[in-house]
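Predict the holo structure. Ligand: LLP.
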Amino acid sequence: MHHFRYVKGQLHCEGVAVEELVQQYGSPLYIYSSQTLTHHYHSLEQALSGLDHSICYAVKANSNIGVLHTLAKLGSGFDTVSQGELMRVKAAGGDLGRCVFAGVGKTAEEIRYALKSGIYAFNIESLAELQRIQAIAAEMGKTAPVAIRVNPNVDAGTHAKITTGTYENKFGIAYEDIEALYERMARMPHLKLRGIQMHIGSQLTKVKPFVDAVRKMIPLVKRLRDRHGLECFSIGGGLGIVYDPALESGTPAWWQGKQAKGLLTPAIYAKRLLPLLKPLGMRILIEPGRFIAGNAGLLVTRVEYIKDTGKKHFVIVDAAMNDLIRPSFYEAYHQIVPIRASRATLIPTDVVGPICESGDTFCKNRPLPKCREGDLLGMLSAGAYAFTMASNYNTRAMPAEILVDGDQHHVVRKRQTLRSLWQLESLPKG
Ligand code: LLP
């Protein structure tokens, strides 16, 4: 669900008209709804309330410090993958003691920073990393809290680029090797065996892969809990969202701003997983990113040109794959809606950006109301893996980001200036 609605024919984010924000801050523009973030956070909290748990929001989904601040105020912990993300959490007023630090390639500098910051746990991805963390902790006279990321070898049935839980992937340590590794770790004096972790993939729309993976993990987790006193089990993130309500409802829901029910709700997730997890008597961590932020964001773009080739109807907009790469990279679907509700005839449309690549395409042959130059379009569900994956390709400045709260809004990131794009560069001497 989300808080983007048409009011008197104008798309609003909560109580604020999108068009007014664009008039003030220009296009393309990212707009986030704090009520949507809050709603998703609360719905997970509520579903898991029967369990000792901690939500660690996956910062990589949307790392704007305004967004992190909103979640920190709600009491969220954070799942981070770099020193930069840990520093963002700190800048946002988050509690580093409630952060986990994951990722297959942590550098020595990052490990030192995390140890100094007193994070809750390192999620470890290899023996080599474990040895490096032990050595650095010894050097610093500290004890590093660790959890091994187990690769449970369960197929999440999601897009190949975002599935992580099988032996084809670079992530985690094979299920069969885990117990021997914990024995070895128990002999490393600068490690505290905090827990165990898994994450099987992202944008899962069925509960079954979660259930299969948790079921497979439970006997192992119990043995490790009893032998090493582990306090937590992290089941990762991955809860999917609905990108295309029309697929479910079968109606052109796009102009009503309606969001159909999700395929996988926190209630279903909790109903199937709680009975398995509760008897463990451990703290359960979850690391949702997309579920919390995905539907909380909108990317607004302006139509620059219409180009009709006879074969194709192209709508050329001022946003591009550098602003939102998901359609090009994953063939991802983002709903595209007019900012002013339109009853114009639907025509099969390719919405494309100005970048010199054919992949710079947001949709192909999608029935959209006929638009004109200057019209504004919105790409929905652009709150996760959207701005965070943006780049300056083609020397394009990244958009501004606005966080709406009721009828208030805050500029949580200014638009980049063009000059700043080569500020760190210099001409060769001579
Ligand atoms: N925990 C771990 C260890 C992860 O690797 C990830 C995501 C998450 C949690 C959060 O997953 P979520 O709840 O957001 O599904 N750029 C891709 C998604 C990459 C996900 C990477 N890992 C996309 O745009 O679909």
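The mean pLDDT is 93. The chain has twelve helices and 21 strands.
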